[in-house]
Amino acid sequence: MAPYDIEKVLFHSLDVIPIPALVSTSDPALEGKRNHLFINKAFLQQIGYSAEEMPDMLSWFQLAYPDPVYRQQVIREWQETVEDSLARGENVAETSALVRCKNGERRWFIVAAQIKAEVLPSWHIVTFRDVHDLHCMVEENRRLSITDTLTQLANRREAQMQLDLARNAFLHRDQPFSVLLCDVDHFKALNDRFGHSCGDEALCLLSATLQACARQGDCVARWGGEEFLLLLPGTALAGAIVMAQRIRTQIAQIALPWENAPLLSVSIGCATMTPELTLDGLIQQADMALYRAKAAGRNCVMA
Asked: What region holds the GGDEF domain (predicted)?
C-alpha cells in the first residue's frame, strides 16, 4: 500500500473513534521537533485545540500545560516513561497528565503514544483517554481514608505514614525531626458540663489553630480523642519547644461560644528523633513528656 493510501486509511479510522487522537511526525530538518499531521474529531470536541493552534508538539505543551513548572514536570515524566518503555521493548508508552482544555477546564487524561513502528517509523499516534471523573473519585476516596472526619486534619493512619517517611529521611539523609503530642486539658469535664457539641467545637477550633501555627511541610494530625500529634521535619528539640510554646499560647486564647465556658488550654510533650530510637520509642518519649506536663499543672510544655 502506498504511503498516501496508508495515511488516508489511518486518518479515516482515527476520525471515527470516540477517543481524542493526533498523529505527529519528526521533522528531519529540526532535531527533536515533532509536527502534527492530523487531529481527529474527538480531539476537537473534547480538548478543543485545532491543528492551526497547535501545529507542533512544542505548541501543544504550551497550551495544554500553561504552568511552566508543571509543564517541565510533565515533560520530564514523559521522557522517563518513554525510556522505561523502550528498555522493556514495548512499542507504546503511557502516562497520566492534567490537561488544560481550550475552554479553560483542566481534566485528567491517560496519554498513550506509539514510540516504535515498523511502518512509517517517524510517525507517532497519540491518544487521550479521559479519566478525570475516575481520577477525582480515587483522589477523594484517598483523601477520606487519611482525613479525620470531624477536624479535617490528617488521621492517625496518615500520621503513621508521615512518621515512617520522616524516619527514613533521618536514617538515610540525616534529616532531623521532632514530634509534639498535645492533649486538651479537662476535656471530659468540658464535655460533661456543656455537651458533646461544645467538645466537638473545641476540637475544631483547636485544630484550626494548630494548622495556623504549623509551617509548610509540618504534619498536623488527630492522634486520637482529644490528643493531637504534630510532626516537625527539620526541627531539633529546641525548635520543637519554641513551636510548642507558641501553640500553647495561641490555644489559651480560644474562647468557646458557650456561656461560662472556660478558655481552652493544652498540655504538650516534645521529643526528637535520635539514632537509637524507634518510632514507638519516640512517641513514648513524647507521651511521657506529656504526662509530666499534666502532672505539673497542665497548660505547659515538657520535653
From this structure: 175-303
Q: How many domains does the chain have?
A: 2
Query: Of 137, 169, 204, which marks where a domain is finished?
Result: 137
Q: Which domain holds residue 94?
A: 3-137
Report the alpha-carbon distance of residue 112 to residue 107 in Å, rounded.
16
pLDDT tens for 52-106 read 999 998 999 999 999 999 999 999 999 999 999 989 988 899 999 999 999 999 9
Predicted TM-score (pTM) above 0.90: no
Return the closest-CA partner of residue 222 out of 206, 233, 237. Answer: 206
What are the pLDDT digits (tens) for 188-229? 999 999 999 999 999 999 999 999 999 999 999 999 999 999
Which residue out of 94, 226, 227, 276 is catalytically annotated? 226
Same domain, yes or no, for 45 and 152? no
Pair 166, 41 in one domain: no
105 part of the active site: no
- The CATH code of the domain that includes 163 is 3.30.70.270
